[in-house]
Amino acid sequence: MAENRASVYAEGVPCWVDAQLPDVEAGKRFYGQLFGWTFEDWFGSFVRALKDGEPVAALVRKMDGRLPTVWTVYFATPDARALVRRIQEAGGQVVQSPVPAGELGVTALVTDAEGAVFALWQPQEHPGFGKRHEPGTFAWAELYTRDTEAANDFYGDLFQEALFGRDAEPDFGRAPVSDVFAAEMPPHFLVHFAVEDMAGVLEDVIRLGGRVQVPPFGTSYGTVAVVQDNQGASFALLQR
């Protein structure tokens, strides 16, 4: 079992990520070379990415070309339907109501009160990340929002234990959109993957057909660069 494996994630802790892509095979080539991931067929059209044999992410083909090409972060919950109700009461919206993913778990897609999209995961056979906080694996999710105080209230009420509990390790934070992006950029979550050599990985992103959106900058949780893969999905690199 991997050192960082967590079989149970507290409600409100990021526990999984996936990328909706037009071409999954191209995604496998890009991320396989960038992060050293291997892949296996999984549930439906999902392909599971592995790092050193442990699950770290999934890729899935977009069923509708009008949908965005994006990375999505999943927050753990023991009861997706109850959490969806609380999200609606707090001013969020439901994009996809809770549905089973076979025997793996139950998933839902929602937005916060400002429209930032995120997913929920109620685990059954699939608890979430088998490895995180290591190079080539999930390290952080940052919410870029227009109203940080409103975000504090929304997520603080939803995920009190994850944010403020005794053993809290939320793995996510928030910042104003305008700190990094153009002011007109809509609120959104940005998935971060850990790296050891920022300059080298940025060179690999470009070599593999991606591009650098925002060059490296300092944050309270490390040095970050925002990039796009070879199909336009944005994500961040994080060097602690």
Can you tell me about this structure?
This protein is of the alpha/beta class and 240 residues long. The protein has a single domain (14-239), classed as 2,3-Dihydroxybiphenyl 1,2-Dioxygenase, domain 1. The chain contains five helices and 14 strands. It has helices at residues 24-35, 80-89, 148-158, 160-164, 198-207; strands at 14-21, 38-41, 46-51, 54-61, 70-76, 93-100, 105-111, 117-123, 138-145, 172-176, 188-194, 211-219, 222-228, 234-239. An eight-stranded mixed β-sheet has the order 2-3-4-1-5-8-7-6, covered by helices on one side. A six-stranded mixed β-sheet has the order 10-9-11-14-13-12. The longest helix has 12 residues, at 24-35. It is globular and about 45 Å long. The model is unreliable at 1-7 (pLDDT under 50). InterPro entries: Anthracycline_SecMetBiosynth (IPR052164), Glyas_Bleomycin-R_OHBP_Dase (IPR029068), Glyoxalase_6 (IPR041581), VOC_core (IPR037523). This is VOC family protein. Residues 13-123, 137-240 form the VOC domain. It holds the Pfam family Glyoxalase_6.
